[in-house]
Amino acid sequence: CIDRMVTRRDSVPSKLKSDLGELENLLKGGKKLKPGERDFMERVLKDLEKAFPASGLGVSEEEKVQIVRALGERKGHWFKCPNGHPYVIGDCGGATIESRCPECNATIGGGSHQLRRDNQFAGEMDGAQFPAWSEQANLLNYQGF
């Protein structure tokens, strides 16, 4: 059910919740959608995407910003487990230990400042172009010299 999929979050606007219920009824009707119904479906899906961007994180852009601010790390400290769940590497931002993802129990982190091959940099979390502990980031420190 579309409504149950989305309403697990407390932040679903009531209008969107109502529109999702109506859309679900249209789709369950088993009839070809009329042009106005198709336009309604496209609008609801766009509203849903705005409320919950397809970042794979399951949070809105506003919630993502709040999470990044709350943890207070400099740019480049965000990474993803093999299943796409975000996590932070503190201190210098280089992976020095392995641990477990609290969402799916996959192995995260790495050793000797090297990220595990099955983990990824998550620059989309804070807008960073490079991991904090990387050659690219170190070279940026010397621009202009």
Describe what is shown at a glance.
By secondary structure, the chain is α+β, with helices and mostly antiparallel strands.
Highlighted features:
single chain, about 140 residues, disordered N terminus, 3-stranded antiparallel beta sheet
The major β-sheet equals: 3 strands, antiparallel
The residue fraction in helices comes out at 25-40%
Helix/strand structural class:
alpha+beta
Taken in chain order, the helices and strands follow as HHHHEEEEEEH
Residue runs with pLDDT of under 50 for 5 or more positions: 1-9
Overall morphology = elongated
InterPro entries: ZF_RZ_dom (IPR046439)
GO biological process, one term: immune system process
Protein name: RZ-type domain-containing protein
Main location: cytoplasm
Topology:
Layout: H1 2-6, H2 14-28, H3 35-51, H4 61-71, E1 78-80, E2 86-88, E3 98-100, E4 107-111, E5 114-115, E6 120-121, H5 135-140
Antiparallel strand pairs: 1-2, 1-6, 3-4, 4-5
Description:
- By secondary structure, the chain is of the alpha+beta class.
- It is 37% helix and 12% strand.
- The chain is built from 5 helices and 6 strands.
- It has helices at residues 2-6, 14-28, 35-51, 61-71, 135-140, and strands at residues 78-80, 86-88, 98-100, 107-111, 114-115, 120-121.
- The strands form 2 sheets. The chain has a 3-stranded antiparallel beta sheet, with no helix packed on it. The chain has a 3-stranded antiparallel beta sheet with strand order 3-4-5, with no helix packed on it.
- Strand 1 and strand 2 form a beta hairpin.
- Helix 2 (14-28) crosses helix 3.
- The radius of gyration is 20 Å and the shape is elongated.
- The model is unreliable at 1-9 (pLDDT under 50).
- GO terms for molecular function: zinc ion binding.
- InterPro entries: ZF_RZ_dom.
- It is found in: Cytoplasm.
- It holds the Pfam family ZnF_RZ-type.
- This is RZ-type domain-containing protein.
